[in-house]
């Protein structure tokens, strides 16, 4: 058994706490935001304040990879999400048989968890409260690290100092403080080197609204990502017949900045016929929310073969951060959590240097490839968007991006390709592996070379005209 302190009670921090506590460890979670969630889904949405999580009321959906891991590791969390009104459901469950070809084995793999972020996190909080060996302390901020005895010049973290709670000793500190984590500075303060960092500032920005379907007899919203000239549109269904729609754009695209205006946002949404139909039977429950996309970033806490410190690891956005419009951060985070649990079983807390290096090795094998694929997709999409803005030819695409774009287009007409694309989108298959799914390669080889880049979506000129209509910017 190890004494573990988890810093941060977000989705990945609570997942880490639950998984480790259930494996027999004594876990304390420190969360700087003081409010404790209470009530049902609407209370959580309306009243729970999480100033430490900038995306708390933006769209979320837990992809198929996260859902599969949660079914194995956190089934009671999924049950609590459903009790609060969330859904575990997939596109094949709601799309018409004429589109899907009817049910097929494996369709259950494509089910996602659909709920607003406060509902998802509230479900985890409720389960954590009844988990033996797990304590969550809210309104407690980790201010600094406790330095233990160094080994061969490598500083050792022996716990944290946490304001009025004083010193909290631990065998392992798990950083789950998200994209703004101060861990690098905290490590420097005890004489450790800073983590080895890779950054890609791709420059996305999001203009989003949450909406609610007005009538119970309206068909359910299906998740979608629609790439068009100069931007993308995402639709993410949630609980209580709510959903979010957002425009993913280049931050330097000044012509699209008027999308922060509600009337402009509505005019542009109306250019997409399917979305306009849903909007006609919906009411907005938020204004337009603007969120700049954080840079894609990976931190490594082992330099070569030597840890920069022992007794501390990072998970989720604190270690690997990706473009949130792809919705893969929580899947990457929960995968890391399971890797950490397995490494603790293998190594134990008594060998702190081996624990840190083995965790880094295991992440390179199982988690970093997920990050790399996501980053490659981000780069390719932003390169397309910048070419659209400039009116220049698109740069050559790598093989994975070419497969992704073609399968997205072909998924609208072929049930087998629809499933392969959905598996790829849900982080279950790699793009080139998706071509080996039954019934995919022959159609892909025949039709992919002739596909238009954008079909059935508004042009950039049409979007700009909608923005300028009535001077709404």
TrEMBL record:
Pfam families: DAO, FAD_binding_3
All residue ranges annotated as the FAD-binding domain in the record: 120-349
Domain of life of the organism encoding this protein: Bacteria
Domain FAD dependent oxidoreductase: 3-77
Gene3D superfamilies per the UniProt record, alphabetical: FAD/NAD(P)-binding domain
Lineage of the species this protein comes from: Bacteria, Bacillati, Actinomycetota, Actinomycetes, Pseudonocardiales
Name of the protein described by the UniProt record: FAD-dependent oxidoreductase
SUPFAM superfamilies found in the cross-reference section: FAD/NAD(P)-binding domain
PANTHER family membership: FAD-BINDING PROTEIN, SLR1998 PROTEIN
Record family assignment: Belongs to the flavin-dependent halogenase family. Bacterial tryptophan halogenase subfamily.
